[in-house]
């Protein structure tokens, strides 16, 4: 005889992890695209992991980190910060 509560607990834990990963990823993507973390967090809370592809397809604002630094940029040697890229963009 298997314990139903133990099986339910493991599945619930995995679903909770998926929900939290969706919230974190959606908040990060929306912040990168210039909409702030709250918009992504709200969609992550409501739509779980489905919020991630939504934010990947959602257009970025013109002055966002997504547009200025690229999709998944890493700051290293020779890379511009957002402030430097904005200043250069305003000069043009």
Architecture overview:
The chain is mostly helical. It has two domains: 59 residues, no CATH class; 32 residues, no CATH class. 67% of the residues lie in helices and 0% in strands. The protein has five helices and no strands. It is elongated, with a radius of gyration of 18 Å. 17% of the residues are buried. The model has no long low-confidence stretch (mean pLDDT 85).
Strand content: under 5%
Query: Which stretches are low in confidence, meaning pLDDT under 50 for 5 or more residues running?
Result: none
The oligomeric status of these chains comes to: single chain
Mean pLDDT across all residues, rounded?
Answer: 85
Largest sheet: none
Q: What's the N-to-C terminus distance?
A: 72 Å
């Amino acid at each position: 005889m298997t314990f139903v509560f133990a099986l339910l607990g493991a599945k619930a834990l995995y679903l909770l992890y998926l929900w939290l990963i969706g919230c974190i990823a959606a908040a990060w993507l929306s912040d990168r695209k210039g909409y702030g973390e709250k918009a992504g967090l709200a969609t992550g809370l409501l739509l779980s992991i489905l919020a991630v592809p939504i934010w990947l397809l959602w257009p970025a604002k013109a002055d966002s980190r997504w547009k200025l630094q690229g999709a998944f940029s890493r700051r290293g040697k020779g890379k511009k910060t957002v402030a430097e890229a904005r200043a250069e963009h305003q000069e043009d």
